Structures are given as C-alpha cells and as structure tokens.
Amino acid sequence: MLTRNPTSILTAALTAREHLDILITTLTANPTTDYSSTIDPTTKRAILKAARDISRAVQTPVENLFETVFGIYDWAALQAAVKLEIINHIGPMGGDAVSDEEVSKKIGKSQDHVHRILKLLAANDVVEETAPGCWRRREMAEVMLHPVVGSFAGGMVGRLGHFPTTIGNWLEENPYPTKTFDCPFTRAMGATFWEVLSADPEEAARFGRGMEGLSNIDASVPVIKEWLIKNGRTEGVFRDVGGGSGWIDERLAPDFPDITFEIQDINPQQWAARSSSLPPSLHRQLTFTPHSFFTPQPPSPTPVIALLHRWILHDWANTDAIAIIRNIVPALEQNPDAAYLINDNVLPDLGEWEPFEERSARQFDLVMMSYFNAKERSRAMWERLLREADERLEIVGVTREGGMAAMALIEVRLRKEEVKEEVKEEAKEAKE
Ligand SMILES: C[S@@+](CC[C@H](N)C(=O)[O-])C[C@H]1O[C@@H](n2cnc3c(N)ncnc32)[C@H](O)[C@@H]1O
C-alpha cells in the first residue's frame, strides 16, 4: 500500500489552521454572508490551497485519484440536468421545493433517473433536497440559468461541449498535430468551431453572451480602462479586432466619450444579437465592421490609439497566430503611437505558482487544445511568437488581472525606425 510522509500532513494542517484563524478573526470583526466577493485574491488563493492540501492529506492517494476519475460523472449530471431542463423545473433558491415526481412528469423523463441525477448534483452543492424527493436550486444552479453569466458554462455542457474526453483518441491517431482545427472538435463535428457558430445564430449569440459572462470572474474591463487612463489614451480610435459582440467596448465607452470603438469580427451575429439593445447614447461611439483578421488592418482617417486582441491568439496554432499578428503591423506602422494590446492568458513559469493554482489556466489550455488545437502561452512563448511575426514587436508591459485562469493585459509596441536609425548612424559615421 502507498505510504505518505506524516510531516507533509502536519505542515498542511498547521498552514490550514493559520488561515482558518485569519478567516475567523476577519469574519468575527466583519460578519458577512458574502465573503467570496470581498476577499482579496492573495488570501483567497492561500485559503484555497490550505483547504486543498488538507483535503488531499486526509484522503488516501486512491481516494484522491478516484475523485478525479469520477469527476466526469459530476460533469455528466450537470450536463443532463441542463439538457433535460431539470434545473429549470425544480424550485428556485430559497423558494418552494418541487418534487422529482412533478419534475419528471413535466419533462417526460423517468422519475428514478431524474432523482438520481439530482442526488449527485446535491452532493456537489448545485441543488438542495429539502425533504425526501423535494428539490430547489442552490447558487450554482441559479448561476447556470442566468442568461449572461450562465451562457459560457451552458456552452461547455451543451451540444458543443463533450469533446475533451476524446483528446487521447485524437492524439493516438494524430501524434504530432500542428495545424489549427486539427482537433477533437472538428473531428467530431465535421466543421470548425467558427463554422458551426456561423451556421447557428442561437449558438453564436449564446457564445457572445458567454464571453461576456466570463468577465464576471476576470478583470479585463477595469484593467483596460486603467491602461487607457494611465497612458492618456482618451481620444481616437480603439480597434477591437475579433471583438465578437463588442461587450467589452460597450462597457468601456461611457468612460471615454472621445474614443470611437471599432469592433471587427468575421461573425456579425454576436454583434447583431447585442447591438439591438445598445443604449442610444452609444450608437455613435460603437461601430461594427465585418472583417477577417487574416487580412491586413484597413487604414483609418482618425488616429488609432490601440488595437486589441482579446482571447484571439489563444484560439490559433502558432502559424496562424503569426499570420494574424502580421496583419496588425501595418496599422502600427501607420499609427506609430498606437499600442497593440493582447488580453489573454499568460501561463506562469515552473515554480512561479503552486501547481494547484495553475489548475484553471491548465484547464483552459486543454479547452484550446480540444476546440482548436491551439494553446495558452507563457510570457516567453508570447515573446517568441511576436518576434517570429515581426522582429520589431516587443512586450513593454504585462499586467496580471489577478482573477480567472492567468488573464493578463500584454502591451506590445513596434520598435520605431530601428533600421533607419542604424542606417542614419552608419551614414553619419561614413561622412565623418
Ligand atoms: C474567443 S472569441 C473572443 C471574442 C472577444 N474578443 C471577447 O473577448 O469576448 C474569438 C472571436 O474571434 C472571432 N473570429 C474567428 N475567426 C475570425 C476571423 N478570421 N476574423 C475575425 N474574427 C474571427 C470569433 O467570431 C469570435 O468572436
């Protein structure tokens, strides 16, 4: 049987106690039921790590392994509950519970099976059984049903969400995949993710809402806003390349009345679904142009202050990512003061974070693998990619958002006139 070092368990217990003491002191001084939205990210990480370490320590390695192995059934129960609208039909959080007999009649599915699915969801705190066979939603189920916040989670457990389980089969057949879209998703659907969205306006609109919904667990809007203010970029054109529904521009626009936000995307459906509900005050400030980022940026009569790629490059394998970046360069040449902003994950280097803290970023990396054969990148990988696209591109700043996965704002500049300066220097020397 496997044995473990007792000191590591003791260390985990001592660390957990230390964090629990801090938590108890904080909550005693400021009692709140909504601690999760006020806790600072560093304390949150420390507490999560302590809780995780202690849970690992009190379980045997076999139990720990099985937690991961059987995790797929947690996903499956949620998937079934969403697909069959079980969670729509049980009682609301804090309201009257509904019996599984009633739910099963409404949705026309076996009560026994509905009951068993709900039981596993209850074990995962998604729903609550208030009396035998009577159910109501808990917070996670309410989030799942939220039209914006729940959209991304809905997509991941929806008809476009089951591909990660075939990563192993795909790599067995294609041991060295290098091309974007040579991936489990395309293999199963016979079309790329973007093609599937183009053919399905409802799924496209849901995806657009999902992107926005994810903003509840990261801090892209405040970080971009701060960048614009700090750098005095409050007038001109801000291009959101591959901007989808333009939700980020809609949130930024009210604070920057002299900036025109130009949203470009190949799929106009996400924007169409959103723009109909845009407040009239923003109609002048937000524009949409159908545009493929595989073609060069069009010239702009008004100075461009920044070009944004938010969650674009992580959808593409290196060769395509390089082509996409190269199409930004002409706009940087025409607008020498413009910044190229990449808002994407920046994976930590080995040892920079605890492995447990990397979990969400690594899950996203495998999302990119299964949907696109694309990837998340570390700072060194971003630097290499940019250099390969154009020697003059350099990272001048990386601001971590501190939230979901490893989201960061990478500021890139095109080094100015470097060659010409060298040539001038040589000419000067020759003259002397
Ligand atoms: C992951 S989403 C990110 C959307 C948005 N930037 C955000 O952060 O919410 C990627 C976007 O790239 C768009 N896209 C895919 N292929 C494209 C292409 N060839 N040209 C322009 N946009 C494209 C998709 O329609 C989608 O809106």
What do these coordinates show?
- Helix 4 (71-83) crosses helix 7, helix 13 packs across helix 16 and helix 17 packs across helix 20.
- This protein folds into 3 domains: 6-68; 70-145, Arc Repressor Mutant, subunit A; 210-418, Vaccinia Virus protein VP39 (Rossmann fold, 3-Layer(aba) Sandwich).
- The strands form 2 sheets. Strands 4, 5, 6, 7, 8, 9, 10 and 11 form an 8-stranded mixed beta sheet that branches. Strands 1-3-2 form a 3-stranded antiparallel beta sheet.
- It starts with 5 loop residues before the first helix and ends with a helix.
- The chain is globular and about 85 Å long.
- The longest helix is centred in the N-terminal third of the chain and has 24 residues, at 6-29.
- With 432 residues, it is an alpha/beta fold.
- It has helices spanning 6-29, 41-58, 61-69, 71-83, 86-89, 100-107, 111-123, 139-145, 151-156, 167-173, 184-189, 193-198, 201-214, 220-230, 247-252, 268-275, 318-326, 329-334, 359-372, 379-389, 418-431, and strands at 98-99, 127-131, 134-137, 236-241, 259-265, 286-290, 304-310, 339-347, 377-378, 393-400, 407-414.
- It is built from 21 helices and 11 strands.
- The structure holds S-adenosylmethionine.
- The site of S-adenosylmethionine (SAM) has 16 residues, from loops.
Observed structural traits:
globular; Arc Repressor Mutant, subunit A; 3-stranded antiparallel β-sheet; 3 domains; binds S-adenosylmethionine; Rossmann fold; 432 residues; 8-stranded mixed β-sheet; 11 strands; alpha/beta
